Amino acid sequence: MGGDLVIYFDNAASSWPKPPEVISAMKHFMEDIGANPGRSGHRLSVEAARIVFDARERVAELFGSKDSSRIIFLMNGTQGMNLGIKGFLKAGDCVVVSSMEHNAVMRPLRRLEEKQGIKITFVPSQKSGQLDLDELKKALAKKVRLVIITHASNVTGGIMPIRDIGTLVKEKSNAMFMVDACQSVGSLPIDVDEMKIDLLAFTGHKGMLGPQGTGGLYIREGIELDTLMEGGTGSSSERDVQPDFLPDKYESGTMNTVGIAGLGAGVEFVMRMGVEKIREQEMHLTRMLMEGLSEIGGVEMYGPEDHEERIAICAFNLRGRDPAEVGLSLDRDFGIMCRVGLQCAPVAHKTIGTFPRGAVRFSLGYFNSETEVRSAVDTVKKVNRMGK
User: How many H helices and E strands in the chain?
Assistant: First the structure.
C-alpha cells in the first residue's frame, strides 16, 4: 500500500470509525456489568436490563414511535426483514417490491415463493434507480398483502419517496407497508407514523453508528407476526409456550447486550448531533465526490444526478475496466477501502445496467473529510490513467 494512508469509503457496509461513546459504553458493560438482562434479580442483571430498555427508548424516539415495546432487537437488519416477511406472509399472498431491493428482501421472498407459492410483483425503477409511482399504482390495483420498499438503495444511494409511497399504499390498497431502512436510519429523518410505515427493518452498524450484530424490526401496533424462533425470554417462565406480548414474543435467547449498549450510545450520538446536521455533512462530501468524479474522462456514475436525491453513496465504473480490478488497486496501491461487485443486490444492478460485474461503490460517512474526498478523486484519476 502506498504510504500509511487509509481512507475508509465503505460506510454502507459498516460505518467506521465509531463515536468514542460507543466504545466506552461497550467497555463499561463488559468491565462493570456483564450480566444477562431479565434473567436474574441481582443488581447487575437489573442494570443490564436498564441499558437495553434505554437503548430501545432511544431507537423508538429516532423512529418517531411512541411505544418502545414495538422495537424488536435482533442480530441485524436481515433478521428483521426475515421476521417481517416470513412472519406476515401466508401461502398464496401477493407482495409488491421495487426493482432496487437487497437480497435481504429478495432471498426470503424467493424462499416463500418456492415453498408457499407467494406471488412477487416488481415495480420497475428508472435506470437511475428511482421508483415510478405510476407503476406502483398499477401494481396496487391487484390484491396485494404487503409492499416492501427500500428507503435508500445500497447500490446507487437513491432515496425512495417513502412518505408518498406510504400514502399511496394506504389509499389504493389494504396492504401493509414494510420499509428496509438499513441504509437510511441515522442519515435521513424517519417518522413511522407520518410515513405510514407498518414494519421497518433496521441495522445498527451503519448510520446508527453502533457495532455489528445489532439491528431489528419496528412493528406497528395491531400487526401480528408469527415467530421465527421460540425459547427463553426471562418472562412468563412458568409457561412452556412463547409469551404473546412485545418485545418478548420475538426476543428469545440471550441477546447481544454489549452490542445493544453500543447501539444505544450510537443512537444517542446521532440524536445529539442531529440527523439534519449529519445529512448536511454527508451531502456536502457527496457533492464534492460526484463533482470530482464527473470531471474524469471514462468514469460512468450511477444513480440520481442530484446529490440531494441520494444518501452518501456513489457507485461508478471506469470504462473498459473490471470493477474488481479497480477496487483491488484502490486498496492495495492507495489505501482506499470501498466495495466492488454486486453489493448483494443483483436486481438493482440489473435495473441500472451493471449486471453481472457490478460497480465500484464509494460510501461516505459523518467522519469522512474533504481532504479524503479530494485524495480519493485524485486517486481515481491515477487508477484511470494506469489502465490506459
Answer: 11, 13
